[in-house]
Amino acid sequence: MIVIGIDPGTAATGYGVVASSSGTPRLLECGVIRTTAAAPLAERLADIFEGVSEVIARHKPDAMAVESVFYARNVRTTVVLGHARGVILLAGQRAGLPVHEYAPSVIKKTVVGRGAATKEQVQFMVARLLRLKTAPQPSDAADGVACALTCLLAAKLDAMKATVFA
């Protein structure tokens, strides 16, 4: 199974593509889709959509995992982040992918064991779980990878439940 995980953002959208065969996850690619801060919002959203669509086309994942929106003190930030999430969800839908959404605290709890983990702790555990020599950089990319790992672990748990309760 191949999963693309996305950490939405309008300036930097982190992503990670993780494959799992025989229960061993491995990182295929991770990075950040950057937009120009001075560009109009519509142009930035188009860049995010195109960037995510390109990664999907390259790896042909089986599923997409997206970090759900958090509530910022600044309402405008929350609304703009919602727009970014919208084009990301659209890219997944257009590619025919099942899209799973996970709260930031669920991703942190799954990967680190603590829902209030720091960015550094997430990066450290992503590197450990995938047996990487160095943690994915920047933290946005590591968050995308963590989101993909959360989806893979949830799918594995669902498969186990189906076997046990069949």
Task: List the main descriptive attributes of the protein structure presented here.
single chain; 166 residues; alpha/beta; Nucleotidyltransferase, domain 5; five-stranded mixed β-sheet; 51% helix
Describe this structure in words.
The protein is of the alpha/beta class. The chain has a single domain, classed as Ribonuclease H-like superfamily/Ribonuclease H (Nucleotidyltransferase, domain 5, 2-Layer Sandwich). Helix content is 51%, strand content 22%. It is built from 5 helices and 5 strands, in the order E-E-E-H-E-H-E-H-H-H. It has helices at 41-59, 75-94, 104-111, 119-129, 139-164, and strands spanning 2-7, 12-21, 24-34, 63-67, 99-102. The protein has a 5-stranded mixed beta sheet. A hairpin with a 2-residue loop joins strand 2 (12-21) and strand 3. Helix 1 (41-59) packs parallel to helix 2 (75-94) and helix 4 crosses helix 5. The protein is globular and about 50 Å long. The two termini are 22 Å apart. The model has no long low-confidence stretch (mean pLDDT 94).
